[in-house]
Design the sequence.
């Protein structure tokens, strides 16, 4: 019981939660503005992790700088997908109807392609590196420097995006698009441009989360799917399109997972995450914090 | 008529295969029949109602698990039948809440359910102190081949009959517009549930046969999401509007996997993903829809 009350677990839960919050923030922006469920979202986390890994091992570039490269690459990937797959289809009425139903299969195809191309290129062997691994003690909690850094960056970026959405005119346009797409177009929001921007921002935040994950855990081409599932749990819990709710829900999932595993054993981690996911969809698809109901 | 003749010729060729071919080719044929049975079953739910299941491996895995638990305790025919019934019952149970969720959410829900089932079976096997099981005295490949032949034929017949029935028309109606179908008197909840359970029935039996063929059971390998993904891709590429589509899709991909899987599994998966995207975007009716249209049979 003592172990449960220690600061150690709380710190671990907060770090995991902050990374989930950042990942889910990206999924929320893409879903909110385009109404497309991106099941390849976790693969962007994976790509970000690989960019940071190679930048560190080949160029000796700190992952804290490598994450900028990861963000830029993911944003470019988002633009390419937008122009290659989705733009024409989002514009047309009938095609868009078909697209919405099929977008998940498209993203799934993208996910399978990305994972296997990465495995072809870099083998499926997990990789890792050591960075900022000094242990800091703080009360009865011990924490490595890379976790502190990952937590700090995730919190700063979540805060930054929230502030951007609240105070900047483009951020407000994104929020307007999330809330009422037609009305946003009527009051002069350039829907297409804002969608592209939100897509880039969403992809970039997933990649940054991946770069941060690579500092603390081993990475592999197939690491992405659990992040996709976690991000789905978070945005459904927080209410679809509700960015602030998503950040709170990310922290909540981090706490739930860390304490759940501590109470049982790590063999139950996947059961816990998938179990919460299935239960949420079956029992409370409108989310714990209210918000928009998904189509039922 | 020509369609029926072609189908009869195909069935005859499949039935004669073990007499003329060696074990290797019988094995390939077994894989082909397996995917015909799985994909035909899948279309009863996903082709006809539009509820796309990306987790059909859960029924296959459940059937395999039933077979492993019962092997040596019951005769082969009973095991296959019980595996099918277990999958049917599981689908009927889980379908009631799951089918309330629609569209893309249903798709990821089915995927999540299959993964959840995989990890639950892994933990249960851990409690039982078994991390993988070996099956001794499994039937020879020809016996398994003929059972699978029967399952593939049954699945094909099932889609054919469902399509012609009142039930099938009800499913098509609810795919186009669920509220409207409900209004004109289609019992949507009951029909969806029955379609889900029927689409699970034969995959359960297929799982029991395949685990006997592999002679060992390891949950992470049996509940492989690649199976679900392959089923969906075969149906999308082949087409799920008639019973021809799954046959075309299964044949094409089994051939492709023969060429690539052993040497370049990742390349095979990349091609699978590419074909899925191309067909979803440009030919949603699949190969079967691209064939020159003849007189439409009902």
Sequence:
């Amino acid at each position: 019981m003592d172990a449960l009350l220690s600061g150690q677990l709380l710190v671990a839960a907060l770090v995991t939660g902050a990374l989930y919050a950042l990942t889910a923030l990206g999924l929320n922006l893409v879903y909110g503005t385009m109404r497309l469920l991106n099941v390849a979202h976790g693969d962007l986390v994976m790509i970000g992790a690989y960019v940071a890994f190679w930048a560190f091992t080949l160029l000796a570039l700190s992952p804290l700088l490598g994450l900028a490269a990861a963000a830029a690459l993911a944003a470019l990937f988002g633009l390419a997908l937008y122009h290659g797959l989705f733009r024409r289809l989002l514009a047309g009425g009938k095609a868009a109807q078909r697209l919405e139903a099929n977008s998940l299969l498209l993203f799934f195809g993208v996910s399978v392609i990305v994972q296997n191309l990465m495995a072809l290129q870099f083998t499926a062997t997990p990789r890792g590196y050591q960075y900022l691994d000094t242990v800091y003690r703080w009360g009865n909690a011990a924490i490595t420097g890379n976790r502190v850094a990952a937590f700090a960056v995730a919190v700063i970026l979540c805060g930054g995006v929230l502030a951007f959405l609240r105070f900047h005119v483009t951020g407000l346009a994104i929020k307007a698009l999330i809330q009422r797409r037609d009305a946003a177009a009527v009051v002069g929001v350039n829907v297409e441009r804002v969608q592209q921007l939100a897509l880039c921002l969403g992809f970039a935040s997933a990649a940054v989360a991946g770069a941060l994950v690579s500092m603390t855990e081993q990475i592999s081409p197939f690491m992405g799917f659990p992040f996709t599932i976690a991000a789905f749990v978070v945005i459904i819990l927080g209410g679809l399109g509700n960015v602030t709710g998503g950040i709170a829900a990310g922290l909540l999932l981090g706490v739930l997972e860390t304490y759940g595993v501590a109470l049982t054993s790590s063999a139950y981690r996947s059961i816990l995450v998938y179990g919460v996911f299935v239960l949420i969809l079956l029992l409370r698809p409108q989310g714990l914090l209210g918000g928009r109901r998904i189509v039922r | 008529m020509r369609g029926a003749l072609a189908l009869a010729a195909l069935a005859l060729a499949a039935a004669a295969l073990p007499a003329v071919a060696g074990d290797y080719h019988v094995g390939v044929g077994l894989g082909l029949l397996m995917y015909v049975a799985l994909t035909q079953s899948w279309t009863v739910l996903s082709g006809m109602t539009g509820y796309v299941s990306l987790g059909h491996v859960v029924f296959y895995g459940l059937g395999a698990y039933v077979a492993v638990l019962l092997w040596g305790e019951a005769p082969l025919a009973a095991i296959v039948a019980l595996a099918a019934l277990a999958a049917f019952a599981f689908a009927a149970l889980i379908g009631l809440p799951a089918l309330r969720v629609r569209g893309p959410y249903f798709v990821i829900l089915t995927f999540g359910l299959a993964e959840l089932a995989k990890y639950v079976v892994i933990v249960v096997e851990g409690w039982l102190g078994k991390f993988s099981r070996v099956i001794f005295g499994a039937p020879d490949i020809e016996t398994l081949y003929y059972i699978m032949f029967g399952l593939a034929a049954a699945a094909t017949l099932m889609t054919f009959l469902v399509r012609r029935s009142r039930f099938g028309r009800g499913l098509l109606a609810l795919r186009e517009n669920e509220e409207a179908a409900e209004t004109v008197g289609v019992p949507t909840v009951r029909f969806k549930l029955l379609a889900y359970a029927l689409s699970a029935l034969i995959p359960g039996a297929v799982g029991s046969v395949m685990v006997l063929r592999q002679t060992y059971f390891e949950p992470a390998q049996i509940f492989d999401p690649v199976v679900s993904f392959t089923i969906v891709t075969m149906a999308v590429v082949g087409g799920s509007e008639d019973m021809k589509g799954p046959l075309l899709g299964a044949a094409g991909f089994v051939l492709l996997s023969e060429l690539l899987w052993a040497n370049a599994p990742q390349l095979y998966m990349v091609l699978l993903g590419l074909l899925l995207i191309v067909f979803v975007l440009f030919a949603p009716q699949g190969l079967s829809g691209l064939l020159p249209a003849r007189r439409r049979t009902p």
Observations:
- The two ends of chain A are 42 Å apart (CA to CA).
- Chain A has a mean pLDDT of 84.
- The longest strand of chain A covers residues 135-138.
- Residues 2-221 of chain A form one domain.
